[in-house]
Design brief:
With about 375 residues, the chain is of the alpha/beta class. The protein has a single domain, classed as TIM Barrel (Alpha-Beta Barrel). Helix content is about 30%, strand content about 15%. It has an 8-stranded parallel barrel with strand order 3-4-5-8-9-10-11-12, surrounded by 4 helices. Strands 1-2 form a two-stranded antiparallel ribbon. The chain is globular, with a radius of gyration of 19 Å. The two termini are about 15 Å apart. The structure holds flavin mononucleotide. Flavin mononucleotide binds next to strand 4 and helix 10. InterPro entries: Aldolase_TIM, OxRdtase_FMN_N, Oye-like. Pfam families: Oxidored_FMN. GO terms for molecular function: FMN binding; oxidoreductase activity. This is NADH:flavin oxidoreductase/NADH oxidase N-terminal domain-containing protein.
């Protein structure tokens, strides 16, 4: 088996010893005040490894940035103190940890926002279908230009909080149909001001957030996650290669020292009409970006691809989602070709330790091989 997956790489100020990254994974185990609980420390501590990078779950940058019950925040002292336990536990094992910064925009429910305020977005376009509370998505309120710059500042403040909490850096959540993605895609942005219309305008908010966060905590501690091919939450762009190509070129030009770019590969369940699978892929973005690049999506079902990818592509890391949920010792298992625990989807978003901290470490006596 090729071994590039287990060679060192510098990401921001962290010198990693392997390229297996834990993908950001929402688990909804924080308390009612959006404060991480001791179990969360145990969960990340279990998944930390010497020289390994974890990206902690999407975390609200403000009280009104999303407010799913039991998702964590990074906007007050109690949350910062609780996250300190997590970062310390990971650092004590020799690992690094970034925090994913989250504003969900229209992907929420007014009943969950303090003051029952309407969700906000680039344009007054609701997501089709039912939200997680079982109701139709509401038509969001359009953000005014001054509010957009306030939110950029809120990202920067949250990034500073993350650094105070001991994180090695932050990953701006620019993927999966949340606020930044809602500005980027033509399906959710029909603005006619400087934040809508042209590619330059639709990517302006993303670039301003990167700029604001970089200024606040340093470019080398700032990263962004993007998902050009995801149809989740009605995302669809008329010209994905041009749109994200422009964005990546701008990032390369303006912020070449960002810690990394994180791209989610096209996956079957995220089909974008009009973009046949064969024509999709992250290769052009990968080429335009010269720094560390994390690729995610589907490695859980085909882990061997992680070996091939890192063998073929320099400066590349691979993020695993579902198999990191189910395998606290995933890097060791991949290194030794040990079988993987199967993940249990029914406990992804429940509460307590079941399906969270009770997945076993490898034990030759009980393990079952689920690898394809
Ligand atoms: C339970 C669950 C929670 C997730 N939460 C997040 C999240 O908070 N932020 C994010 O960017 N992606 C999130 N994702 C997507 C994963 O980070 C990852 O991209 C996806 O699972 C594909 O990787 P895999 O095939 O290795 O599972 C989540 C996925 C799952 C299964």
């Amino acid at each position: 088996m090729p071994t590039a997956l287990f060679t060192p790489i510098k990401v921001g100020s962290s010198l990693l010893r392997h390229r297996i990254v834990m993908s950001p994974l929402t688990r909804l185990r924080a308390d009612a005040d959006h404060v991480p609980v001791p179990l969360t420390t145990e969960y990340y501590q279990q998944r930390a490894s010497e020289g390994g990078l974890l990206v902690a779950e999407a975390t609200f940058i403000a009280e009104d940035a999303g407010v799913y019950p039991s998702a964590p925040g990074i906007y007050n002292d109690k949350q910062i103190e609780a996250w300190k336990n997590v970062t310390k536990a990971v650092h004590d094992k020799g690992g690094s940890i970034y925090l994913q910064l989250w504003h969900v925009g229209r992907a929420t429910v007014s009943a969950w926002i303090p003051g029952s305020k309407l969700p906000v977005s680039a344009s007054a376009i609701a997501i089709n279908g039912k939200n997680t509370a079982g109701m139709d998505y509401e038509v969001p309120r359009v953000l005014a230009v001054e509010e957009i710059s306030q939110i950029t500042q809120t990202y920067a403040d949250a990034a500073k909080n993350a650094i105070s909490a001991g994180f090695d850096g932050v990953e701006i959540h620019g993927a999966n149909g949340y606020l930044i993605d809602q500005f980027i895609n033509t399906s959710s942005n029909i603005r006619t001001d400087q934040y809508g219309g042209s590619i330059e305008n639709r990517t302006r908010f993303a670039l301003e957030v990167v700029e604001g966060v970089s200024k606040a905590i340093g470019e080398e501690r700032t990263a962004i996650r993007l998902s050009p091919w995801s149809g989740f939450q009605d995302m669809k762009d008329d010209t994905p290669y041009e749109t994200w190509g422009y964005l990546v070129n701008q990032l390369q030009e303006r912020h070449p020292r960002l810690a990394y770019l994180h791209f989610i590969e096209p996956r079957d369940q995220f089909i974008n009409d009009g973009n046949p699978t064969a024509d999709r892929g992250d290769a052009p973005f990968r080429k335009a970006w010269k720094g560390p690049f994390i690729t995610a999506g589907g490695y859980t079902t085909t882990p061997k691809r992680a070996f091939e990818t890192t063998e073929k592509l320099e400066n590349t890391l691979v993020a695993f989602g579902r198999s990191f949920i189910a395998n606290p010792d995933l890097p060791l298992r991949l290194k030794n070709d040990w079988p993987l625990n199967k993940y249990d989807r029914s406990t992804f978003y429940t509460s307590g330790s079941v399906g969270y901290t009770d997945y076993p470490y490898y034990n030759p006596g009980t393990a079952r091989d689920i690898k394809n």
